[in-house]
Every structure is written in C-alpha cells, then in structure tokens.
C-alpha cells in the first residue's frame, strides 16, 4: 500500500511519500513509522504533496507538524488533495501568478 | 573532536586559505577578476549596490575580509567611490592578515592595475600560501545553516537531519547560525520557546515581525516563496517556515545577531545556536554569515542546487531521493534515505557532522570541484527601513 506521513498526532493533513493514485487506499504513518490510519485518495497526489486525513471545513485551520500552516478556503473532505487551491496562508499571501 | 585548519593571527581558525581580491564596487570588478585570474587560491568578489551605499555594505565587505578562511585581502577601487578601498582595508588590517589596496584611476588604467595587483598577490602567496594545517578543536567551528529550493522533503528529511547535526556540533562546543527571518513567519512560538532569556525571546519576535513588514507591503507583488516550493508541495509560508526551522535543532537560542545600519554582530566565541537578523536570499545570506564569522555553510535543497560561495565551502544536502539520483554530482549528502526508510534522522545528522569535519580539514565539496564561487552582499534598503520605521538610526 502506498504511504503518507503525518508528522504530529494533531495534524489534519499527511504528506505523500510516493505518488498517490486517485481512488487508492493510502496507509498513513506517524513520524515513528506506525500505521495510524488509512484513507482513500480522492484525487491523484504527487510525491511530497498533502492529503487530508479528516474533514476540514472552510475557514478551519490546516495543521501540519502540530502547527497551523494556514486555513481552508473551501470545504475539504478526507482523502482530498490539499494545496494552494483550497488553503490560504493566515499570514502572507503569495502573488497568484505563481500558482494559477 | 578535532579538525585540521589554519590558525590565524587574530586567534580565529580558518578552513580554507583564500586570497581575496575585493572590488569595492562593481565598476572595478572586471579588473579584480583579471588580477585574480590564474593565481592559485585567489578569488574576486564585489557588491552591486553602488559605491556610496552605507554602513551595511561596508560592514559586510569588512566582515568578509576578516573571515578566517581569507588569508590575505587585496582591495581594488576606481578611486572616486564614496566608500574607498583604503577605509575598508584599514578596518580589515586589524586582523593582522596581509591587506593592501590599489586604485585604478591612480595607477593609470587596467594594465597597470592588473600588473600591480598581480605583484601584490605574488607577495601575499609567499607570505600565506605556505601555511600548514594544524589540529583545532571543533568547538571553534561556526557553521551557517540555510535552505533553498525547498520542497516538502526539506521539512521531512533534509532540515531535520541538519537539525540533528546542529545539536551534535553545539554539544561539542561549536556554534551554528541561521539567517532567514521570513522563513520563521508562522514558526515564532517554537523558536521563542527556546530563547535563553526574555530579552532574546523579544528579539526573536522583533526580528520576524520586522521581516514580515518588509515582505508584505500592500500593492507590491513580492516573491517570498518560489515556484519550486509550490511545485514541491509547500502551500503557505507557515508550512515552509515550520519545515525550515528544523535546521536549527533543539538547543537554546543564545541570541539574535544584528545586521542593520548600525552594526553587523559576529558570533560570540562561547558557542551555541544564534539567529542572524539578515535575509533568506541565498548568496547574500551566505556573505552575511561569512561576515559574522562562519567558516562553512550547509545548504539544504529539496529541488537541487548548483551554488557555491566565494569564501565559504558549502555542503549541499537534499532530502529528496530523486533529486539526489539526478544531481548527485552537485549534492554532497543524500538525506533522501530518511524518506525511503533506509536511515534515521540522527544517522544522517552524524554523517553531516563527519562531512563538516572533513570539509573543515580540506575535503573538497561538490561545489568546489566545479569552482563555484559566487558572491553578493545584502543591504536592507534604507528607504524601506525609514518608511516602515525600522531604521536603527531613527530616534
């Protein structure tokens, strides 16, 4: 089974350790390599990119490393691809030209 | 733990024996390059902020000249600069290393200046290039840590491995500095918790808050993350910061070294981890770290990099196994073994420490094999500092 890593038990996203295929069941490990849950990838997700491990409502914090890394700009379902299309910084916004 | 380095007359320890030909401003750079060209150990550098550019640029050039990796300094100016070579040279001479200065207008043009410069370098070579390496304790090493071209492996593997190294070097009595305040936005708390005292805690918040103001001016389209960061999976500055600060390890933060229009503070000899109030812009931050006393820098790049600094040997680390496979000729350390599950973070940290000691003793880095020797100098724009009320010179 392909793997993603969840850096902290409070996180609501995990990072893909290999390319994840749409519809495949993903093994989510803790940073100490323990399998903490499984989640089905709703879209294809590249190596190093993030997958939601639980639902994140629009406006809620996105948490990685146990720290707030931004907030959801749309409702996010478990297994959704999480990136600039559905998360914004709470501090400084990048010019949109870089990712649109 | 020991390395084999060069004892300098001011009590510092060098890991390279460089003859620095420093063009005070970029108008003299071509002549400086011609002087250095073909001379063993010589490298030409300059800065690109003009010649009446204020204390920050002067402090950086003086500090780089004072760096223990530099065995001798030849300053070159045109002769009409607001910041003449003589005034910088007199400051660098306090280290007691050979320092001289020449003016192109005074000597009568390119050919005469190149000939005079080469004679001076020849004299310097006889004085300093015969220096022998001797055994020196690692507690006298100052290592700068920096990341760039980050992807998410930097936060998962490359930076944590460097953080493990940072703790190991500090436990052995050495010093580590990090200079990228924008890459601490969103990571203030975990840094501030490590401040050695309340003053340092406040300085950490001040440094990061000021940098956030510089990079979030309404109406300005500012690039504080690169396209590669986003392609690599990093979504926000907070995520990038939380990954970046792993390089700083876990030991107490002893202080925030200032680099502003009043002064450029050097790393104290007492060891430990320090932040430098400077920039995340790579080549400029390396020069500032050199001016603050670093002898080596470690650069973590998930995307891969082909850079090297004029006076600091650079150990390049990638946490991305695919990047290492494609660019192994350019990357010194593969931390991608953490991602593939082959190696622990501590094990890679130990390999980085071993590499630092070997490079400090003369091992040639990947960048040095290609002769990479870039240089540029950071300046906080005095107009922006004044407009944002950040100038240290204002009442």
Q: What are the salient characteristics of this protein?
A:
heterodimer; A: 100 residues; mainly beta; Archaeosine Trna-guanine Transglycosylase, Chain: A, domain 4; six-stranded mixed β-sheet; three-stranded antiparallel β-sheet; 9 strands; 0% helix; B: 395 residues; alpha/beta; Rossmann fold; seven-stranded parallel β-sheet; four-stranded parallel β-sheet; 16 helices; 14 strands; 38% helix; globular
Entry summary:
Chain A has 100 residues and is mainly β. Chain A has strands spanning 3-6, 13-16, 25-30, 35-40, 50-52, 61-64, 67-72, 81-82, 87-88.
Description:
The complex is a heterodimer of chains A (100) and B (395). Chain A has 100 residues and is mainly beta. Chain A has strands spanning 3-6, 13-16, 25-30, 35-40, 50-52, 61-64, 67-72, 81-82, 87-88. Chain A has one domain: Archaeosine Trna-guanine Transglycosylase, Chain: A, domain 4. Helices cover 0% and strands 37% of the residues of chain A. Chain B folds into 2 domains: 18-130, Response regulator (Rossmann fold); 139-369. Chain B has 16 helices and 14 strands. In chain B, helix 2 (55-66) crosses helix 3, helix 2 (55-66) packs across helix 11 (282-291) and helix 6 packs across helix 14. With 395 residues, chain B is an alpha/beta fold. The longest helix of chain B is centred in the middle third of the chain and has 20 residues, at 152-171. In chain B, the strands form 3 sheets. Chain B has a 7-stranded parallel β-sheet, sandwiched between helices. Chain B has a 4-stranded parallel β-sheet with strand order 4-3-5-6, sandwiched between helices. Chain B has helices at residues 29-36, 55-66, 85-92, 104-107, 110-128, 152-171, 188-192, 198-214, 227-231, 237-244, 282-291, 321-326, 336-339, 345-360, 366-369, 382-387; strands spanning 2-7, 13-14, 18-23, 42-45, 70-77, 99-103, 134-137, 142-147, 175-178, 253-258, 272-277, 296-300, 314-318, 333-334. The model of chain B has no long low-confidence stretch (mean pLDDT 95). The interface between A and B is medium-sized, with 32 and 34 residues.
